[in-house]
What we know:
Distance between the termini of chain B: 18 Å
Radius of gyration of chain B: 13 Å
Structural class of chain A: alpha+beta
Largest sheet of chain B: 5 strands, parallel
Oligomer: heterodimer
Number of strands of chain A: 10
Strand order of the largest sheet of chain A: 5-7-8-10-9
Strand order of the largest sheet of chain B: 2-1-3-4-5
Shape of chain B: globular
Number of helices of chain A: 10
Shape of chain A: elongated
Distance between the termini of chain A: 80 Å
Order of helices and strands of chain A: HHEEEHHEHEEHEEHHHEEH
Strand content of chain B: 15-25%
Number of helices of chain B: 5
Structural class of chain B: alpha/beta
Largest interface: A-B, 23 and 21 residues
Strand content of chain A: 15-25%
Largest sheet of chain A: 5 strands, mixed
Order of helices and strands of chain B: EHEHEHEHEH
Amino acid sequence: MPGGTRTWEDVTHPEDRDHVRETIYDHVDRDDSFTVDYRIVRADGSTKWIQERGRATRDADGAPVWIDGTFADIDELRRVQEERERFVVERARAEADQRALEEKNAELLEVAAMKDSFVASVSHELRTPLTSIRGYLELVLQGEVGALNEEQVGFLSVVDRNADRLLHVIDDLLFVAQVEADRISIEREPVDLGDLAREGVEAARPAAESKEVSLVVDVGDGPHLVGDRARLAQVVDNLVSNAIKFTPSGGRIEVSAYAPNGTAILEVADTGIGIPADEQRRLFERFYRTKAASDGAIPGTGLGLSITKAIAEAHGGSISVSSEEGAGTTFRVELPLVSRADLSDREGAAT
Amino acid sequence: MTVQERVVPLVLVADDDPDIRALVTFRLEKAGYDVVQAADGEEALQLARERTPDLAVLDVMMPRLTGDEVTRQIRADEGTSAIPVILLTARVQEADVARGFEAGADDYIKKPFSPQELRARVQAILGRR
């Protein structure tokens, strides 16, 4: 750099040189004024945006002699512009993301609606033939179309029992589908958990007696809570029928219900075969069956405990198990005396 | 024949499933009622208007007109608005039951139902008249 002077070439940012030169030559050729933005490199190596405006001054023959012009510092302006461009790009991206989310949401809603209508139509298609099967059986078994002999009654009772079992499986599957679709609805009515326990035990007594398992119920008055009576009865039935299935004859099952401190507790304790520790944490998974259940060909779909858990949770409660192999198992359901559903209802009423 | 002249109560039974229709008809006729049958919602509505039954037992999921809709139209028409309605529903969600009551149904029975239970519900409604 002779004499320390920096030429135009030195000052102009290498990436901008070509287009600046082209712009100026182009406009000079057309005898036009030009405006061009470019970066200059300062002595300390930093860059700065400038804007050059100019026009060639010509001699008498019309040949360009020099360029008259101005330089403006547009560094700040440029920075603001870049920021704005960045902002515009970002906003466009955010809007695209938003649209994608909305589309996804609409898709999910559609899937949920399809699932709902699928569940509704499956429910209808399965229940309609079962209505006829059970209804006509009832007429025949009640002797409405003539007397039956003992064997006919026996055989038709088997059909009836199995239709009943089929209905329970259908109900369980539909319930699981509802839980999965987050569509489980819980009634809010006053429930005496003690009464439910007593009724559940009485309903299960024939099964317990035929297996020679003693069934004891230890409940006083209550606990009284707000919840879904039919669903909570299902909890009692599921736990008691499980206990009967997995307790060998001579064993004992005790059902208790109490409310020690603002929480209703239902316990079903048996002296059955117990559940190995590694299987205990999988018990509440849908369709999970313990090795003892499948090896022993004990009937069941593996849905009962997952349903029981879903019902407890829908009431704002929980279920837990403690078990020792060969000694027995205790299931414990804890339910708030005032259910979450009841609370949210009150909140709704207050607003 | 008008309602007042009838000795035996007339029940309208509407279900698109012929087996269920026959089952309900058999049970109710055995219990001493006259039964008129419809295979879809429009037929049910037409029969309700022509015959003014003492009670209508309507399936919810029927072709042409749903049981809910038939109920609504029965309620809306002065000539039929007093007919009690029992809905038969194979759907189990609370919302479905609520829709039936909103339409103006007096009772609902879940499928599968026991014919004996149906008869008891019918008697409960007709007996109180």
